[in-house]
Write a structure and sequence with these properties.
With 666 residues, this protein is of the alpha/beta class. It has helices at 2-17, 27-34, 42-75, 85-99, 102-114, 120-135, 140-161, 178-187, 191-210, 213-226, 232-241, 245-274, 285-297, 306-316, 374-393, 411-422, 428-434, 445-455, 460-478, 486-501, 525-545, 554-563, 571-579, 586-593, 596-616, 642-645, 648-662, and strands spanning 166-169, 172-175, 324-331, 341-346, 349-350, 356-357, 360-367, 628-634, 637-641.
């Protein structure tokens, strides 16, 4: 696997560093600015460059904020009259129109010719050139199609927010969100209930294909092809990663081929151990793998303590949010967007004169504290999104456009940060310190060991589940337009699940929310590339420091190597610069091949060491300092605020009391 991926990466690094998007200026426009006079004086040039960059930064910052506030308001179903699908569409259009201005790209290229190549101004101008190139559309027809796609997407999203989901259990319909349905599929001991909840999830595919998704796929593809791309997937990955769809799938195909035998062997072993082929049914597989263990682990992951445990863990790793402000909307509710995310209405950046502009972060999860297993999944999501927030809070570049999450920011780059930090929740030493029951008891080793025995042989299932999404979207956008129908899309989803995962998935592909929205569609490959980077980065820290949990060098190392540069450096270069090796899937595949016995031995050592360390120390009652204001909200309601409540731990206590009062465990 190493050689196939490494040879591609060498090519991709070169391509990314010199990437010029196809949606650039026409040759006549290029000739017009190439003849621009270069006789300006040094002082005039400095003023011109500063004025141009400052104007871009100020205008973009405002447009970005207006769109992100609408994004948050509509996705969180806030009650204010200022939030609407129409306003979301308008503000998004204004922001993208600003970035798609050919005059700005022309001016950027003119100034680039005149400034020193190694100057700060040149780095900023090169980033602006890449950014404008991702949005400029020479074709007026493509612009019209883009607007049409945005409108269709807005209508689909509004309709999706009103969809009533649930399952018929014991003859009675029980309303549940997609998160609630997935949770029951994973942990409910009754097979009939699990099957009913799985069937409830499949209704999402029926709904979206009947409410605009078919036409959305067609319009997206028409737009991309008008711009000279192979299809919409090629358009998205080229803008985000700097290399196209064909090159991307050279990586993914290598990973897919390398792990297919592991997946096939694991499925045979699973069926043999769990009672036959029925164990592989989508409503049985997850439960039979770890459902009982999830129930038994549940007391050690009380959701109401998740904010405190995240804060303590990140603080112990010396992770700082550099004066940021964060709104956390953590609880599931009707009408709320059905996926966790983290966005920034205020990007972090260094203003002229060196003034620091801290970030403002909005992030959300979908916890139901009364549901078995919600504490573990809620905490993992919290660690994930908080990882995104830490990354974007620490980008220290001279423009907010270095710190925005859309193209040309690499999807894989953004997801690597969050996935690395959420991976800690599965580490035995992390659980020894932070998986604590309400009674103050640490999770016992025997239970950790049972989880390893139950899940490690089948970790390949998660890898194949991640691969299924990009393979589905690639096939979807490669379909001839006349073949794109509701039925063909649903049939394709089933086909890809069976081919890539070996059978139907417990999370039907058409229930994955990413495929609907423009920002997240053709995005999931980023999780795969990021997971490769996660394992390689973990390997780096373990080789260098021997541990990750509570390692005070983790935050500073990540800040310097991954976070500060923002999108100024290619993802592949950042990984290689930190780890000392090109990105490969070797560390990931080697972990999949590791024997259960070896994993148990390693994890037992780290668990015992951390437990002994915790037992020998005195309780830490000092407040947690993440250098950030935190507001915990539930829609329009503010539940707790570090500025108002007297610090982080007092805010956590207030949130804990709210959850305990509102929810009761079954």
């Amino acid at each position: 696997m190493r050689f196939a991926i490494a040879s591609f990466l060498a090519h991709a690094l070169t391509a990314a560093s010199s990437f010029t998007p196809r949606s650039s200026l026409s040759s006549s426009a290029r000739r017009s600015f190439q003849t621009t006079s270069s006789s300006m004086t040094a002082s005039t040039l400095t003023t011109d460059v500063s004025t141009f960059i400052d104007g871009i930064n100020t205008s973009y910052e405002q447009l970005h904020r207006e769109f992100e506030l609408q994004f948050w308001g509509t996705k969180m179903a806030l009650s204010g009259p200022q939030y609407s699908t129409e306003e979301l569409t308008r503000t998004k259009g204004e922001m993208e129109d600003f970035l798609a201005d050919e005059d700005k790209l022309s001016k950027t290229r003119e100034l680039l010719k005149a400034v020193p190549e190694d100057s700060v101004e040149a780095k900023t101008l090169k980033m602006l050139e890449r950014t404008f190139g991702c949005y400029i559309m020479e074709s007026e027809e493509a612009k019209t199609l883009r607007a049409e796609a945005t409108k269709i997407e807005g209508g689909l999203e509004a309709a999706r927010n009103t969809l009533t989901l649930g399952a018929t259990i014991d003859g009675k319909f029980e309303e549940m969100s997609s998160v609630g349905l997935r949770n029951k599929v994973r942990v409910d001991p009754d097979e009939a209930t699990r099957k009913a909840c799985y069937e409830g999830l499949t209704k999402i595919g029926d709904f979206v294909t009947e409410n605009g998704f078919v036409e959305l796929v067609k319009v997206r593809n028409r737009m991309a092809k008008k711009l000279g791309f192979l299809d919409f997937y090629d358009y998205k990955v080229s803008n985000a990663e700097g290399f196209g769809k064909i090159a991307l799938f050279e990586i993914l195909d290598t990973l897919e081929a390398g792990t297919r035998p592991i997946m096939e062997s694991a499925r045979k072993q699973f069926a043999a151990e769990k009672g036959g082929e029925s164990a592989l049914s989508p409503w049985n597989q997850g439960f039979l793998m770890s459902g009982d263990i999830v129930r038994r682990m549940d007391p050690y992951f009380p959701f109401e303590k998740s904010v405190e445990q995240w804060g303590r863990s990140f603080a112990a790793m010396n992770i700082s949010y550099k004066q940021a402000t964060m709104d956390l909307d953590l609880l599931d509710r009707k009408g709320k967007y059905s996926n966790g995310f983290c966005h920034w209405p205020q990007p972090a950046w260094v203003k002229p004169g060196g003034t620091w502009q801290p970030s403002t972060t909005h992030f959300t999860s979908l916890a139901d504290p009364s549901a078995i297993g919600s504490g573990y999944t809620g905490l993992t999501t919290l660690m994930h999104e908080a990882g995104h927030a830490a990354h974007f809070a620490n980008i220290q570049m001279p423009s907010p456009l270095f710190a925005q999450e859309r193209s040309p920011t690499s999807v894989a780059y953004a997801e690597l940060q969050s996935m690395f930090l959420d991976s800690l929740v599965g580490d035995a030493d992390w659980m020894a310190k932070y998986a604590i029951s309400r009674e103050g008891e640490a999770i016992p080793w025997d239970l950790v060991a049972e989880q390893i025995k139950a899940t490690h042989p089948y970790k390949v299932f998660a890898l194949r589940g991640m691969l299924a999404v990009p393979y589905f979207e690639r096939a979807l956008y490669e379909m001839p337009e006349e073949d794109v129908t509701a039925e063909s899309i649903k049939a394709l989803a089933d086909k890809v699940e069976k081919d890539i995962q070996g059978g139907l998935s417990a999370r039907p592909l058409l229930s994955v929310p990413h495929i609907l929205s423009d920002e997240a569609s053709c995005y999931y490959h980023g999780y795969v590339l990021a997971e490769m980077g996660v394992h390689q980065t973990r390997e780096f820290f373990l080789n260098r420091d021997k541990y990750i949990t509570d390692n005070p060098s983790v935050g500073p190392t990540l800040t310097e190597a991954y976070w500060k540069p923002g999108n100024s450096e290619p993802f592949l270069s950042l990984v290689e610069n930190l780890t000392g090796a090109p990105l490969t899937g070797d560390a990931w595949v080697n972990e999949l091949k590791q024997s259960v016995e070896d994993v148990l031995k390693e994890e037992k050592q780290s668990y015992d060491a951390k437990l002994a360390q915790c037992s020998s120390g005195t309780p830490d009652d000092t407040d947690v300092d993440l250098d950030m204001r935190i507001r915990i909200v539930d829609g329009d309601l503010v539940l707790a605020d570090t500025d108002e409540d007297g610090g982080f731990l007092k805010t956590c206590t207030k949130f804990e009391q709210y959850v305990q009062t509102r929810f009761t465990k079954a």
